[in-house]
Design brief:
By secondary structure, the protein is an alpha+beta fold. It has 20 helices and 21 strands. Helix content is 36%, strand content 18%.
């Protein structure tokens, strides 16, 4: 078979075109991979070759009003494993159990961390002791993917004394990681869990840094540094508070180990929280890096409920401390004046219908005006004042003051008090014809359907001690607005303050007077519903302020099952005299 010369030329041209096309295709692929997709493949190469070791950022330091440290950072150690697969991780952890103590629960938690962030080192022990680190360093050659890092560790120098408001930090949970607000968090990182640590997490957390290490095909570290420039972590900004740390520690000391309850101290002019304590407390340091099961169970099963913040979450009948709300409502509506006497003298009780309502003083107080009824805390007087006002005015007045709302402190644990918004509440609870005038008698003396937090009562007395205005209680330094809480004239406010001075001078808190300073306040004894040997254990209250003419501190104290309010008054007196640096008239004992 013969070919025409033109056919040979044509075929040569086709072959040349095919070769040229192939070369162009190859050149295009080369250009695409080396130029257009250079960053993509370079990143992929680096991803295979480099691993990022997170460098935790120090959290912002928390200071009191005098720049004393409340929460700090110290050097700690974390232990992680760099693994390519889950099976590899499990194998390494299993081998580690022969060197250090690792529980099955820790292994499973580590595996869950790996699943959430497989490209990051998997944290095994977030807060390792120096002894554990020493043992692992001795056996490091046996565990090529083992990473031991020094990292900032949260530390609370005063531990239990500040736990009630500062809270603690812990590892971000799986539930938190599923929330949009934690979108930029990674498994193993520490976050605020309670108190200021949680409230100001976004401020305190800082910015995590990175260290790059080079690994081989099996994920073993071959170069610890210099593979790529490290990113230095940035510490979180400091947080300055209104807390007076010396006063806070004094409050913790005066409660000791035997009392349970809470106390709040506020600057009434600014709303700044000087101290906030719940007894018994817990040590936030023991939650860092994971709380032990034994310690947590001891807290959880303690009948005194140390994990329950009694200053913010506890709602208790305010007892006679709430009588000042009845007074304010009575004065504001014109139902009573400070010089008014009630028609029926106190002879130890008051007959209403077929029921006899007792006064706390069995022999009675006789005829008193309103000022004397406040000083002596006469229940019979307030029963009659309550009936004069009526339940609708008492409820509406309480709502106007704010007893149905949170105080608004900058802490996430605060609970709303229990207080009816209107008389419809009673219709729903008892039926439209199922409740009687007895409700108004109970409410007038701070019992019944009225349970307040210690913080809320402190805020109310901040208004009584000044011009009827109160600022939202705040721990972080700032300038919250003062709003009108009590709608009374200057003269009426002064009359109330003088009546509260009478409580301390000649009334139920006479044993708690302070030398050289006028203390004003009100005791309260409230039903708890807890009985021992047939006798009810009452809660003891005191809320007061000093100096009476221009208060610089308001203190609210509530002792669970603490008997009469005089005990709470003695504690509050000591707190106030410690803050004002004055001497009590007598050496008071909280057990007296």
């Amino acid at each position: 078979m013969s070919f025409h010369p033109n056919d040979i030329v044509k075929r040569g041209r086709v072959a040349s075109m095919i070769v040229a096309g192939v070369l162009l295709f190859l050149l295009g692929g080369f250009f695409r991979s080396q130029v257009l997709n250079h960053q993509k493949y370079d990143l992929q190469s680096k991803t295979n070759r480099l691993r990022v070791l997170p460098l935790p950022a120090p959290r912002g330091v928390i200071f009191d009003r005098n720049n004393k440290v409340i929460a700090d950072n110290v050097i700690g150690y974390s232990v992680s494993v760099l693994a390519m697969k889950e099976d590899t991780l499990r194998a390494v952890l299993q081998r580690l159990t022969g060197t250090i103590s690792i529980t099955p629960a820790q292994i499973e938690q580590s595996v869950r961390r790996f699943r959430r962030a497989p490209t990051r080192p998997t944290v095994i022990i977030p807060d390792a002791s120096f002894d554990v680190v020493s043992v692992l360093e001795e056996h490091r050659s046996q565990f090529p993917g083992l990473i031991i890092q020094s990292a900032p560790r949260r530390f609370y120098p005063d531990g239990p004394a500040v736990a009630s408001f500062v809270g603690y930090v812990g590892e971000v949970s799986e539930a938190e990681l599923a929330q949009s607000s934690f979108a930029d968090y990674k498994a193993g990182q520490q976050v605020g869990k309670q108190g200021l640590e949680k409230q100001y997490e976004s401020l305190l957390r800082g910015k995590e840094g990175s260290q790059f290490v080079e690994v081989d095909a099996r994920g073993r570290i071959v170069r610890n540094s210099g593979a790529q420039q490290d990113q230095i972590p940035e510490a979180g900004p400091d947080l300055h508070t209104n807390i007076d740390l010396d006063l806070q520690k004094f409050v913790a000391g005066i409660f000791g180990d035997s009392l349970q309850g809470g106390a709040v101290a506020i600057d009434p002019q600014t709303g700044g929280v000087l101290a906030l304590y719940s007894a018994p407390s817990f040590d936030g340091n023991r939650f860092i890096g994971g709380v032990s099961t034994q310690y947590y169970d001891s807290l959880r099963t303690d009948p005194r409920r140390p994990l329950y913040n009694k200053a913010l979450q506890g709602t208790y009948p305010p007892g006679s401390t709430w009588k000042l709300a009845t007074v304010a409502i009575g004065l504001e509506t014109g139902a009573v004046k400070m010089t008014d006497r009630m028609p029926i003298a106190c002879s130890g009780g008051l007959q209403v219908g077929n029921r006899y309502y007792r006064c706390w003083k069995k022999e009675g107080h006789g005829y008193l005006d309103l000022k004397g009824a406040i000083a002596k805390s006469c229940d019979v007087y307030f029963y009659q004042l309550g009936m004069r006002l009526g339940i609708a005015r008492l409820v509406a007045g309480g709502v106007a003051i704010g007893f149905d709302k949170k105080a608004g402190i900058d802490l996430p644990e605060e609970l709303k008090p229990r207080f009816p918004k209107s008389t419809e509440y009673f219709d729903i609870k008892y039926g439209k014809k199922g409740w009687t005038s007895s409700l108004v008698l109970s409410m007038a003396i701070g019992q019944g359907d009225n349970s307040q937090t210690i913080l809320n009562m402190a805020k109310f007395y901040s208004a009584l001690g000044t011009d009827g205005k109160a600022a939202t209680p705040q721990i972080k330094k700032g300038t919250p607005e003062r709003v009108q809480v009590v709608q009374l004239t200057d003269d009426q406010m002064e009359q109330i303050r003088q009546a509260l001075v009478g409580v301390v001078n000649v009334g139920t808190a006479a044993a708690s007077a302070i030398k050289g300073v006028q203390l004003a306040g009100k005791t309260g004894t409230a039903q708890s519903g807890k009985f021992v040997n047939g006798k009810e254990l009452n809660h003891g209250w005191f809320v007061g302020f000093a100096p009476a003419d221009k208060p610089s501190i308001v203190v609210a104290v509530m002792i669970e099952f603490g008997g009469h309010g005089t005990r709470a008054a003695a504690i509050a007196s000591k707190i106030i005299q410690a803050y004002l640096h004055v001497i009590p008239i007598v050496d008071l004992s909280v057990d007296g």
